[in-house]
Amino acid sequence: MRQLSEKEVDQVKKAIAYKDLTSAEILVEIYDHYVSHLETFEEADFKDELFELEQKFRYSYYNPLQENFEKTAKKELRKIQWSICKSYLSWPKIIFTALVVIILTLIFDNLEGKTKGLAVIYPMGVAVLLFGLIALKSYLKVRKIKKNIGIASKVQSSFLTNLSLQFQMILGFFNLFVLIPKIFFDNPIWFESTYFIMASFLFSLFYIGYLFSLIEAWKVKSKTALI
């Protein structure tokens, strides 16, 4: 096995850059496959082998790879999240979970009426900040890869795409339970109503737990994926 020359590597990068790739993980996988395959042949066979690879890795071939990887990434994240949730509802971690719920309940119970209604907003602000940091970290990783290969197209981590979708789902719940009722029932005492206070507390517990499992899943996948 030989090492490709700088000129040959540039040709590989140009070939990859012309492809309509959107998944950073698939981009890296295809690039690594090209290089490892071409390194097994002599320099005289480089152009012919590169041509053969280009004939194989057409849009009709690599696009299904991207779509399948998106689905796999989604399932993998959910599997990790569910595993984390089950671990915190099993012995002995359930003791920690119960203590957190009790502490949050006591804090919430000691807040004033309007403050209770607004309490649901603060964790959402923390969530936005955390997701921003995760997205930035992923962006820097992918930008380095794009710069190395010379790709200007929109490429991002498939795992980040799925994280974004789940985060948007949380924001959707937030709008459904907080902002939309506020619009339709525009009342000065809305944030002090019993319904809103209870809904706020239950919703806070839900999305704090959900976000925690999502962040834990990110920590696991960030060791190997581009997030």
TrEMBL record:
This is Uncharacterized protein. The chain crosses the membrane at residues 88-108, 120-140, 160-183, 195-215. It comes from Algoriphagus aquimarinus. Keywords: Membrane, Transmembrane, Transmembrane helix.
